[in-house]
Each structure stands twice: as C-alpha cells, then as structure tokens.
Amino acid sequence: MRFDVFCSVVDNYGDVGVCWRFIKRLAQTQPPSISDFTTISPNRLRLFCDRIDLVEKIAGSESLQTFRALGVELHPWQGAILDLQGTPFPDVVIETFSCDLPEAYLKQLRFHPNTLLINLEYLSAETWVSGAHGLASIPSQKSAPLRYFYYPGFTQKSGGLLQGPTPEIQKVDESYPVSLKTIWPALRSKRLAKRISLFSYGGGNTYQLLEQLKTSEDDLDVLVCGELAQQAVAEWLGGAFQIPVLKNHLHLIPMPFIPQDDYDWLLHVCDLNIVRGEDSFLRAQWAGKPFIWEIYPQIGNTHVGKLDAFLDIFLKEATLPVATMYREAMHWENVSSWWPNLNSMAQHALKWRQSLMDQQKNGDLAIRLREFIRSKRKNS
Predict the structure, then answer these.
(1) Most exposed residue of 4, 60, 100, 290, measured as fewest CB within 10 angstroms of its CB?
(2) pLDDT of residue 38
(3) Is residue 208 within 8 Å of 332, Cβ to Cβ?
(4) What is the pTM (predicted TM-score) of this model?
C-alpha cells in the first residue's frame, strides 16, 4: 500500500519524532507487496517534511538505512509539488497534527477519489477523544476531499498507541550505544548513584526541581537532554554548562544529541525520566520507569486539564500514597516526599506498562490504522 505522510514542524523534536516513529511502524507492519485489496500495489512510504534535516538527525544513519530498505523515502516539503509527474498517487495520505497540505498537492488529490485522506491527531487522554475518533469532516467545497480524523489514545475506542520494538529492560551498562561513548563512561555505577534523564522545556519547573534535588542525600547523575533543558541548567548554575558539573550530590551532565533509538535505550536505564511533548512522553511509559511529564504549556492553562485527564487513567489502579506521589511529581512539587519512595513509583510504572501492552494485544496504532483504512475502502 502506498502512503504519503506530511509533517510540518512546530516543535523541533516532538512532531518529527512522532512522524518518524509512525512511518517506521507503517514499514514494520506492512503486508507483502501484493495489496490486501484487489490490485497489485507496491509498498511505498513517503515522508514529506519541511525540516528533512531534523528527520535525518533524529533517525540516525543506521535507522535511515534500515527503513529505506523497507520502502521508506524522505522528501522535502516542496517535493510534494515537484514529484507528482509520473508518480502513482498514494492509496492513503496522512496529514499529521492538522498540517495543511501543499496547495498543488491538494488540487491533485481532488482528482483521486479513491485515495483516503486521514488527519493523524495528537495523543490525548481526554474523554472526548473516543467519541471524535474516526469521524469525517464535512468538506467546505464540493470538490474538496473527505477527511477522517484519527485520534491516538489509551482506550479501545481510540486509535491506539505507537508501540514498536523497545530495548530490553535488562541491559548491562557496557552495551551503551555508540552515540553515548563520550558520556557514559563518566557516569558512576548504579550502585553508587541513581540516574535521571532530564528533557524539559526549561524555566521555572527545571529550576525548582534542581533546587529540591540538590538537597537529596542520594548521589544523582542527571543527564540533561536538549537545548532548553541545558540552557536552564546553565542559568541555574550561573555559568557555562558545556562539561559535567558537580554540585552537592548532583552530577549534571550535558548530553549530546542522540538518535531516537538511543534515547529509547536511555529511558530504560534511568531511574527517573523527565520528558516533554508526545513522543518522549509515550516512550517513558513503555520504558516502565517513574517519569515526570512536562506537558506543553498552553494559554489559559488548558494543558493542566490534559495532564489531569492522563493522571486520572494512569493512577486509576494506584494506591492512594502512590497516586499522591505521582500527582506531586507531575506538578513539580514536594520532591522530598516522593523521591524517597521512588521504588513504589517504579512498581506502578511497570504495572502501567503491562496494562498498555495488554490493551494493545490486538494491535497498536499502526495496525489499527490499517484496519481502519480497510474498513473505509470496503465501504466506499
């Protein structure tokens, strides 16, 4: 089946990270080259992005090579205009996060009524998602194509979650990825220090967390990921942060940029993961470790309602003490009350991971999407 996926970058890493993981899952779940409908349709997965450089950076050369062999192609955004001549039109067009398709491409799409147009939306735990999932838009013009809205989510009535292969939970430190060869040897052994990955939006939350962590009696290796988090640490230190810095019990380590697969590995070997956006938020859950999700701030504190909607389902089966700890952590409060109980939070994280795996026994987002496509094509 031929897919064209469009990604317009809003957040430097978040949108690209989700889109690259999504197209990888499409490649991993594709049927043989004989289409599962009635015609021969060679597999072709094209990702159009207005920041191809970021896709290549997040993917890494090894992953790019692997998935190119499975039919994945990367194209610049303007290539969607230039590459139409003589190219078979796709079976499915995916708009990610309500990005607007290039006008020339959209005009061509109107002449291909058998091509399915789907808008892949952001992941949310809000209750309305199940009711909105799979609905079609009403075209504003007679010639405009019908658009279906596909919502990832945490319930069976939603579009599911992006899963994919995950690193083994039990990994020896000596097996760290090549991208970490200059950093990992500087860490203390897990017997001597706990490990925290910090990938935040920076600012007040990060300052507040560091102020509280520095009073801990535990030795902590803090792996600081991304420009915003590193800038915040530099401001908190009151000086440059280009090499590891020891402050009280905190060993603050600026991380180089590492490919997506290596970041997944990092989440599995840390004791606490501080994540942001959507992709790292979901991967932190698959890692089965305690985590703090810094949700993207929105006007009118809309993001707080989205965070609380997630916490309501995430903590539904938790004991009251564990639920209290996680709520305090997610709201960047009272580190001294939940940090000593990190083991209890870890046990809940593993149970939550297992519940997500059980929920997806019948397929993750990519597999459910293919079923959704089949149902719409059969009914058309």
Answers:
(1) 100
(2) 39
(3) yes
(4) 0.92
